[in-house]
Amino acid sequence: MRTEDVLAAIATGLWRWDNTSGKVTLDGEAARLLGLPAEPVVLPEVAVRSRFHPVDWNEINAIITLAVAEDTLAEARLRIMDEDGRVLRTVRSRSKPLERRTPDGRVDFELIGTLQEIAEPQPGTTAAHTPITGDWRRSREAFLLDAGRALAEARSTSEVLRVAASLSMPGFNPDGLAVFGVEGDRLSVIGHHGHGPGDEGPFTDMERETDYPAAEVVRTGRAIYLSTPEDYKRRFPAAWPLAQRFGRVSWAFLPLIVAGRTMGAWMAAFKHPVSFSPDERSVLTTVARMLAQALQRAGVAESERELTTGLQRSMMPQLGPEVPGMTIAARYVPTGGGLQVGGDWYDMIPLPSGRFALVIGDVQGHDVRAAGLMGQLRIAVRAYASEGHRPDAVLSRASRFLAGLCSSQEREEDAGQDGGPRFATCLYVECDPETGMLEVARAGHPDPAVRMTDGTVLMRPTAGGLPLGIIPDTDYPTTRFVLEPGETMMLCTDGLIETGGHDHDTGWARLRAILETEPPEPAGGDASGGAGSAHLERMADLLVQAVHGPSSHHTTGPLVDRREDDIAVVLLCREGSDCGCGTTAAHPARLARRTMLTVAQAEPGRIAGARRQIRELLHDWADDDQVDSAVLMVSEMVTNVLVHTDGDALLVAEAAGDLGTRRLRVEVADGSDELPHKRQPGEMASSGRGVLLMEMLADDWGVDPRGEGKSIWFELHERSKPDADALD
Predict the structure, then answer these.
(1) Which of 118, 45, 47, 113 is nearest to 77 (CA)?
(2) 75: which strand partners?
(3) What is the model's pLDDT at position 316?
(4) How far apart are CA 176 and CA 625, in angstroms?
(5) CA separation (Å) from 188 to 45, 79, 240, 243, 291?
(6) Measured at the alpha carbon of residue 226, what is the angle toward residues 223 and 227, in degrees to the nearest 5?
(7) Which residue has the higher pLDDT, 6 or 294?
(8) What is d(CA 76, CA 293) in angstroms, rounded to the nearest whole number?
(9) How far apart are the C-alpha atoms of 681 and 552, rounded to whole Å?
(10) Where are the strands (E) in 355-399, listed by range?
(11) CA dihedral 312, 316, 317, 318 (to 10 degrees)
């Protein structure tokens, strides 16, 4: 007995559906099950599709898509209908989607499977009612909910058009879409789908009086439904030659109306006949309303983005002319959501002395007023700096300017309307490109960070004052240090550090990992700044990506916009023969890393900063116990200077040598001639153990008298951490 006879005996037919060519091959039994003559036949997709219930067709598309994705069988129940729309029978389809690549490189699939007739449950039986036999109304409501959500989430015109093209309408999916916009007395195509490049040419610029369905829809505000080519040709004979070449057989043109104003028209074209029943017209009308509202929202949002982007760009200056021996890179990223404007800024200012200044700041808030204050404050700082004032004087004048500006604005506005006066943090760095000398004044802003030539990154503590605008007359102390050849300094706002659920410490650790692990720059970089500039730009990009990427956030789940705060970052690299900007590979001779810090009598709190500096300097030291010993001795030495003298303590620490055999030397200098001496403190004494600690913990230590004052120093020689097993 032949296989075909066996399958026919159990009412099972075979079919092959070629999605590429749009042809369906049926054997005799499959043709009979579809209500066709019982003989093998090859039919176009449209002819077979018309035999399925519209709801079932819509659902089987999703089932096949899932089977393709999961490489499984696609199984569904389908209702077969006759030409009058009556259900003939229900069949079960089991098929295997096979992916294949078309000659043009597109991935498509072929469906091979069976159709088998099944008996429908009789009234009064307990057979389950499968979801595939759901009614049209339920399917329509589900589609409209999905379409409304997708269109509401689209944030640009292009996204709205992509969503409209992907909508899968229940039972009558259009294969050609076009959206016409109105500008004055003319219509133009603002987006289309299902057409080739250049097909929109004849429709890109039409007068409203043109004899074309979309133009009539815009003129009258009423939809036009053309069920057959004859309807199209009869009503719009002049436009028919243009529409005929696309091979469509049904068209719907609907007005896009928002707040009583017709803003355009939407065309949905079909390659299969559509009668446009009341239910189908209801679905199309609802989609047109949602599409019009989505396009209106997207247009407003795009206008706001264009306005705010232009505002922000006008306020963000380009970095100035190239500075010999220096490479500079900068980034600014506004906060996500709202108008995407904020109060962060950076600037590079040429000075009358031949030096230049780098400024970075953050005005409180992310709104239009913050952006306006930022622009005014930036101009004021630039004006004061251009007059030749020192860094401390620039910030003092800027603080007075901002306080007066906020005070005058508050008097002009209604009380409580704008949330009170604003303040701003700022970091002002005056740079000497010849010597690398930096003079830093800080107003409540995060400290700068320096990447040394061997890849070590340290936060550079600087003296600072209150944020600008809080107290009009405020002093801002100045800190001086040298940026050595090959070192890179980073200035940033708190948005780069604390975005993503981080506090200052964890955020700084995240940035430090990026700065220290950046891939090395190829040897022999261009001294003129070509390769070095490209590397610095890449480093700036990596810092921003580290904040906005998934790893920066404190929760898991779908990706969202993580621009919680504005971000501004400036990188300054002093070029050198062994430029360490991005260099992490070991040098034949390890370069020394050093740090320097002044602890004033009036700032005992900076002792904690000194301890942190030593830990960061020794972050890769082999023995943690030695690091703890160094921190303890530094704390003791600096505290003794503040307690037993009237001057400030100058801390200088240097680590030199190859990894595993390095030598740490720490010096603390002061202006007193009194030398330390060994004492025998009692058990309950609170002091007198400094020299004892040095003898116990340091490999070597001593006191060097100077012309004015003295320097106390100690050395530690790096050793491997003791093996735990060896101590047992």
Answers:
(1) 118
(2) 94
(3) 64
(4) 73
(5) 33, 42, 18, 16, 17
(6) 130
(7) 294
(8) 36
(9) 50
(10) 356-363
(11) -90
Of 298, 287, 265, 291, the C-alpha closest to 181 is 265
533 is written with which tokens? 């500039």
Burial letters for 328-342: b for 16+ Cβ neighbours within 10 Å, e otherwise? bbbbbbbbeeebbbb
- Entry field: residues in the chain: 728
Q: What's the alpha-carbon Rg for the chain, to the nearest Å?
A: 38
- First-residue to last-residue Cα distance in the chain: 84
Residue type, 402: L
What is the largest distance, in Å, between two alpha-carbon atoms of the chain? 116
Per-residue pLDDT band for 686 (boundaries 50, 70, 90) equals low
Q: Which residue has the tokens 């580290």?
A: 546
**Range list of β-strands (E), 72-152:** 74-81, 87-101, 107-118
> Quick one: which of 266, 226, 271 has its CA closest to 247?
271
Q: Would you state the structure tokens that stand for residue 641, as one six-digit string?
A: 């200077």
Q: How far is CA 627 from the centre of its chain?
A: 38
- Give the whole-angstrom CA distance, residue 162 versus residue 154: 9
Strand order in the sheet with 326-333: 326-333, 567-574, 488-492, 449-451, 457-459
d(CA 493, CA 446): 7
Q: How far apart are CA 612 and CA 618, in angstroms?
A: 10
Question: How far is the C-alpha of 389 from the C-alpha of 386, rounded, in Å?
Answer: 8
DSSP for residue 52? B
Strand partners, 366: none
Distance CA(154)–CA(150), nearest Å, equals 7
Find, among 285, 288, 57, 47, the residue nearest to 170 by Cα: 57
pLDDT at 111: 85
CA dihedral 396, 397, 400, 406 (to 10 degrees): -120
How distant, in Å, are the alpha carbons of 270, 328, 332 from that of 496?
51, 18, 10
Considering only CA atoms, which of 268, 229, 283 is closest in space to residue 55? Answer: 283
SS3 38: coil
For residue 492, what is the enclosing H or E element?
strand 488-492
CA 561 to CA 340: how far, in whole Å?
12
Let me know: does 578 contact 591? Beta carbons within 8 Å.
Answer: yes
Would you report the helix, strand and coil content of the chain in percent, each value rounded to 5? 35, 25, 40
pLDDT band at 606 (very low <50, low <70, confident <90, very high): confident
Question: What are the structure tokens assigned to 720, written together?
Answer: 């491997």
Q: Quick one: what percent of the chain has pLDDT higher than 70?
A: 79
d(CA 162, CA 178): 11
- What are the tens digits of pLDDT across the range 699-718? 999 888 876 788 899 999 99
β-bridge mates for residue 430, sequence order: 357, 439
Copy the structure tokens of residue 659: 């990894």
Select from 10, 22, 15 the least CA-distant residue to 40: 15
d(CA 155, CA 303): 12
The four Cα atoms 305, 310, 315, 320 give a dihedral, to 10 degrees, of: 120
Q: Within 10 A of 440 (CB to CB), how many other CB atoms are there? A: 27
Q: At what angle do helices 136-153 and 157-166 cross, to 10 degrees?
A: 160
What residue type is 494 in one-letter code? D
The full DSSP string for 413-424 is SPTTSS-S---E
Alpha helices, DSSP H only, in 468-529?
Answer: 494-498, 504-517
Structure tokens at 205: 């610029």
Lowest model confidence (mean pLDDT) among 55-59, 191-195, 358-362, 511-515: 55-59
* Better-scored residue on pLDDT, 633 or 61: 633
Residue 593's CB: how many other CB atoms inside 10 A? 24
pLDDT at residue 229, as a whole number: 92
Q: What is the dihedral angle through the alpha carbons of 73, 74, 78, 81, rounded to the nearest 10 degrees?
A: -110
Q: What is the pTM of this model?
A: 0.56
C-alpha closest to that of 482 among 447, 445, 434: 434
Query: For 40-56, what is the mean pLDDT?
Result: 83
